[in-house]
Amino acid sequence: MKPRWMLVWALYPFAAGAMALNVYFVSLLLSWIGWAVLSPLNAGALGLVLGLPAAWAYARHLTRLMAEADGEVAS
Using an 8 Å Cβ cutoff, are 60 and 4 in contact? Predict the structure, then answer.
């Protein structure tokens, strides 16, 4: 079942912010083994890119839950 795109775009700002934080914290963890720490600006840019697939996946999950609540068969 495909998600509704209005739902994807409504979730996108939250997903992009969450992905930016995750990318930044992963870069902090990787600094323990010698990798460089990303700047918050670079982490934010990566969050903008990675936020769309994350929002799409969560919107798909929510669409399945809505279909299940309506009694429709979700594939």
Answer: no
